[in-house]
Amino acid sequence: MRQDRIGFLFITPAVFAVVVFYLVPVLMTAVIAFTDMSTATGIRGGDYVLTESSLRKLDDASLPADTVAQLAEGGFVVDADGLAGIEAQFGAALTTRIATALLDEKFDNRREIERALNDLRAPELRITRDRKAAAALFQRSVLNTRHDTPESLRAALSVADIPLADHDQIVQAAYTGWSWTTRNFELLVSLPSTLRYALNTLMYVSVTLVVFNIGLGLFLAISTFYLPERTSATFRAIWFMPRILPPVLYVLMWKWMMLDSGFIASVLAPLGVARINWMMETEVHAWVAVILINGVVGASFGMIIFASAIKAIPQTMLMAAEVDGASRWQQVRFIILPQMRWPILFVTAYQTLSLLASFEYILLSTGGGPGSATEVWAMAAFRTALNNYGGNLQYGMGATFALVLVLIGTALSLIYLRFFNFQALLSKPRIER
């Protein structure tokens, strides 16, 4: 019982980390993906504001034309607030005159109230411009007025004599906050760019993973294993440097090599090769640059993991094989590679998730260009939710992109565990049974 409590105590930090840094973010992403949350709506509940844009939507949604016109004009009411404005602008005499003749009167449009003011024959309102200014003080439009609650907006609509049957539709159109919706997923399926992002991500992840992260990393680990210890350690340290360099500095080095004024162009220019931007000249150039930049970093990670795993292989096995006349290739094929399933599984799963979620090297090097040729799924999520050109950040749509990425990453991890026979890797060796 005591051992169980100690074991639980030790595993608690790991459980806490999984819940806080994985489950909670994933859950929040899933929740936001089913909303239309954006910069316009805010991340909290919104207010109720009827704007010209709202009116156009209501007109398109078949709200009665009379109601739309009434909302646009807003109506005019001779009340205490308007009279206070008249007194401040035109004096007490005109205020008394208007109050006596028109107090609490309602007018549907500006023309009617201006006609009523003209009938007063007041000297202060002899000029048309003054009558218009006086009429404006009594305008009670619900447009561009912010209301904290739907009840407040409904009260304003009632004052403006808007038919009660139209209130629900108007309140819904005036809401500026976010609401629950599945439209993000529908939009994701229908957008032409979705397929482009998916294909870009597939090529980026598969080529970088297979050729560099696993292939080149394994090749470097095996090659350096047969070198003298000091030489191999020095080589690995040098190759590992791109991973510990700041991404900005690392990408700047690649740009220095590949721009039209960079190292490659300068070397080839005397040979008659025109100076071009080897990073952005064409889509092929951009993809080569992106995969090389990420591949060199990924290969260094695989090299360290695989080299450590090879060092853990009992030396007696390799010595016995060498005594039996096995060549280096035979040692690699029949001794080293069969015992690399676990590290290959780890690197494959880890680097797949890393590549699916990472885009910083692409953003710093090609920016997803030329055009959107190298824009991957994670970058699309970032730009949609946090850094788009339009200014209105679509948090809900960005979360939808991210949620799909989480589901794909989780599915691929389960496939890897099945493919590498994870249960067999965890089983005890036969000699210990």
Structural notes for this entry:
By secondary structure, the protein is an all-alpha fold. The protein has two domains: 123 residues, no CATH class; 242 residues, Orthogonal Bundle (MetI-like fold), CATH 1.10.3720. It contains 22 helices and two strands. The protein has a two-stranded antiparallel ribbon. Helix 6 packs across helix 7. The protein starts with a helix and ends in a 7-residue tail after the last helix. The model has no long low-confidence stretch (mean pLDDT 87).
Task: Summarize it.
With 433 residues, the protein is mainly alpha-helical.
**How would you state the average pLDDT, rounded?**
87
Let me know the number of strands.
2
| N-to-C CA distance | 26 Å
Order of strands, widest sheet: 1-2
Query: What is the makeup of the main sheet?
Result: 2 strands, antiparallel
Q: What class would the helix/strand composition place it in?
A: mainly alpha
Q: Remind me, CATH topology of the largest domain?
A: MetI-like fold
- Count of domain modules: 2
Helix percentage range? 55-70%
Oligomeric state: single chain
Task: Please state the overall shape, judged from the principal axes of the Cα atoms.
Answer: elongated
Order of helices and strands: HHHEHHEHHHHHHHHHHHHHHHHH
Percentage of residues in strands: under 5%
The CATH fourth-level homologous superfamily of the largest domain: MetI-like
Number of helical elements: 22
Given as residue ranges, the uncertain stretches (5+ residues, pLDDT < 50) are: none
Tell me the Rg in angstroms: 35 Å
CATH architecture assignment name of the largest domain: Orthogonal Bundle
